[in-house]
């Protein structure tokens, strides 16, 4: 029974920290290109908030499971990092709820704090998934290399999308310029081939 609880604990935290939270971050990064679009911006913001709330709820369930079922002596890194993440998630949730208006003077300070907490929670969450897999291996002696590899591939995909989002407007502009150049070249050829 304990083995099932450990697996469920890990699955809930992967679902939260390894899936919902990164997807929520990727979604909110889309706002950089849609600042002026009211309806689309609202959809993006609500999607981000929904994903982060679901992530928060799953972390809370997994934390309650941990407190109720596991030895929490905080003698290993996985437990210590988990506690730090849980505290940071509560702070992050508070900053999300108490967001100042766009015109507010405190908006840039709020944004910096919210962004920094988000990065911290995300990085610690990724690290803690790896330490959790290591703890599972240590406790059960079961091989976790497939899960480590699968999670590493997942993180690489997220990073690729994250970086692609940053460069996507540039890529679209180059493509547009190349298409314009091709059309111009074809028109010139057609003109001279008459």
UniProtKB/TrEMBL annotation:
<keyword id="KW-0813">Transport</keyword>
<dbReference type="Pfam" id="PF03188">
    <property type="entry name" value="Cytochrom_B561"/>
</dbReference>
<protein>
    <recommendedName>
        <fullName>Cytochrome b561 domain-containing protein</fullName>
    </recommendedName>
</protein>
<keyword id="KW-0408">Iron</keyword>
<keyword id="KW-0249">Electron transport</keyword>
<keyword id="KW-0349">Heme</keyword>
<dbReference type="GO" id="GO:0016020">
    <property type="term" value="C:membrane"/>
</dbReference>
<dbReference type="InterPro" id="IPR045150">
    <property type="entry name" value="CYB561D1/2"/>
</dbReference>
<feature type="domain" description="Cytochrome b561">
    <location>
        <begin position="1"/>
        <end position="172"/>
    </location>
</feature>
<feature type="transmembrane region" description="Helical">
    <location>
        <begin position="81"/>
        <end position="98"/>
    </location>
</feature>
<feature type="transmembrane region" description="Helical">
    <location>
        <begin position="145"/>
        <end position="164"/>
    </location>
</feature>
<feature type="transmembrane region" description="Helical">
    <location>
        <begin position="6"/>
        <end position="28"/>
    </location>
</feature>
<dbReference type="InterPro" id="IPR006593">
    <property type="entry name" value="Cyt_b561/ferric_Rdtase_TM"/>
</dbReference>
<keyword id="KW-1133">Transmembrane helix</keyword>
<keyword id="KW-0472">Membrane</keyword>
<dbReference type="GO" id="GO:0140575">
    <property type="term" value="F:transmembrane monodehydroascorbate reductase activity"/>
</dbReference>
<keyword id="KW-0479">Metal-binding</keyword>
<dbReference type="GO" id="GO:0046872">
    <property type="term" value="F:metal ion binding"/>
</dbReference>
<feature type="transmembrane region" description="Helical">
    <location>
        <begin position="110"/>
        <end position="133"/>
    </location>
</feature>
<keyword id="KW-0812">Transmembrane</keyword>
<feature type="transmembrane region" description="Helical">
    <location>
        <begin position="49"/>
        <end position="69"/>
    </location>
</feature>
<dbReference type="GO" id="GO:0020037">
    <property type="term" value="F:heme binding"/>
</dbReference>
